[in-house]
Amino acid sequence: MKSSPAAVAGEALRLASGGGVRVPAAILLLLVAAALLGPLLSPHDYFTMDLSGRLQPPALEGARLFGTDDLGRDLFVRSMSGARVTLLVAVVASLVSLVIGVTYGALAGYAGGRIDAFMMRMVDALYALPFMFLVILLMVAFERNFLLIFVAIGAINWLDMARIVRGQTLALKQREFVSAAELIGVTPAAIVFRHVVPNLLGVVVVYMTLTIPQAILVESFLSFLGLGVQEPQTSLGALVNDGIAQMERAPWMLLIPATILALVLMSFNFLGDGLRDVLDPRLRER
Amino acid sequence: MLRFALLRILSAIPTLFLVVVLAFLMVHAAPGGPFDQERVLPPENARNLAAAYHLDEPLPRQFGRYVSRLVRGDLGPSYYYRDHSVSDLIGAALPKSLQLGLLSMALALLVGISAGTTAALKRDTLLDRFVTGFSMTGISVPVFVIAPLLVLVFAVQLRWLPASWSGSAGFDRLLLPVLALSLPQIAYVTRLVRASMIEVLSSDFIRTARAQGLSTMSIIRYHALKPAMLPVVSYLGPATAAVLTGAVVVEIVFGVPGLGQLFVRGALNRDYTLVLGIVIFYAILIILLNLLVDLLYGFLDPRIREA
């Protein structure tokens, strides 16, 4: 296990040049670039309606690459800015779950004994909660706050992370450098955050590529129910939902965002799987 | 075994209590009351209404009242569907959801186990690559993308099957919803079975069985299947949660008047008792299933109940 961020980045680069990781990584980079640059290159924006140009099929003419929706808004720009929102929510939510999960798991693993047993029983108990439904409750109760989506999704996804980090911490605790730190009187908190957590980075980064698609799923599920981002803002899930309403007259409104969403999810899953297999085969069964 | 079972049942109770407290607090911390949507009532009527539903009492008192009714199986009156109790509403919607959920899980297990086993036996062939590719795709594509795509292809374009629940009274109205709900689960079960089957098939006792001249079929049936099922059994808990969540989408897309639809409509109508009741009902279901899984696990693998 490497410790410095530079070493982790180097490791990631080495992996990225290898087999099953290259293709999904390339697709993701392409999608991210399109989501960031696409709206800038198009003459249209995501909210201007054109009631005379509703439900136009995709065409090069007038730069309507993906056609228009039922309100005459440009679907290319909407898809790209939707992808932007979806990716942003997913990354931030994953960071939230990472902070909670790593802290919780590292503390439980380092503390060990009864404290560890109790903390892990809590995680088991939380696993049994119907989280998705609690999140729906939360969204309805608190008026669809955008910030709340991040927190809610992050709050769901930290459990797996906590389990994995705890397992790794248990192993790390036996290593000489931890004993050495204990010997020279470093406080437990400093040991956890200065010595244990940095050594977990490799595992955590890999695992995060698997948390991101989960977060995307939750966000787009909420948007699908109309509880996510609000109009005229959009996300891939919200676009799929709009597409369902129009699928008989304008199938592209469903097919295009659905394909992008599936592509994003698939790339992340393949990437995470590939990285995990190369980096740590023991994690394969969780 | 009995002690193991009792311990697990006892440890499920705090979890359940946690769900009830969390859901109750969340619902009651929400700004805006259940009767806000209608025309503004004269203050006196509003007070009477609040009193009739005990909404004027302090929160701990309301919670105590709710829990004491809950243990008797009474989930209270619905705020929105005035003449119905929550238990009645759940009871009316449950059969449809149960039908969908059970059929989907059965299909997922049947197809997933066979496909996973086949792929493990034909490892690294073209067939295996195809199965693995399909299952990775299935895991990645969410239900709310699969469901409308199925409608688009089989109902709108080909016109083979009804696009909605009310479009038919026969068995055919079940096909698309069940398919949409089970596809991700099929994918997941396939992946699990393939991985664990490969591991089991490479173990020593299988080699012994081969050396004794048993056919591949009987090795799978009598030796490999049981140990290879362990990850599938432990997946049943999360699978239930996933099917319940997926059912919300499927019921909305296909217009099935089941629990998932009831939940979303309840949430949008701010029908707090209904929403609370469904969340608690789901939690009980998931907890019971996890319990069952643990017991089954202990039965399949004796090492676990010893520990």
Question: Could you list some keywords that capture this structure?
Answer:
heterodimer, A: 286 residues, 0% strand, B: 307 residues
Tell me what the structure shows.
The complex is a heterodimer of chains A (286) and B (307). Chain A contains ten helices and no strands. Chain A starts with a helix and ends in a 7-residue tail after the last helix. In chain A, 46% of the residues are buried. About 2% of the residues of chain A have low confidence. Chain B has 307 residues and is mainly alpha-helical. Helix content of chain B is 77%, strand content 0%. Chain B has 13 helices and no strands. Chain B is flat. At the A-B interface, α4, α5, α8, α9 and α10 of A face α1, α5, α6, α10 and α11 of B.
Give me the CATH architecture of chain A, please. Orthogonal Bundle
Number of helices of chain B: 13
Shape of chain B: flat
**Distance separating the two termini of chain B:** 11 Å
Instruction: Output mean pLDDT of chain A.
Output: 78
Topology:
The complex is a heterodimer of chains A (286) and B (307).
Chain A: H1 5-16, H2 19-41, H3 75-111, H4 113-127, H5 131-141, H6 146-173, H7 176-183, H8 188-224, H9 236-245, H10 252-279
Chain B: H1 2-29, H2 43-52, H3 59-70, H4 86-121, H5 126-140, H6 143-157, H7 172-201, H8 204-211, H9 216-228, H10 230-254, H11 259-268, H12 272-300, H13 302-306
Summarize the structure.
The complex is a heterodimer of chains A (about 290) and B (about 300). With about 290 residues, chain A is mainly α.
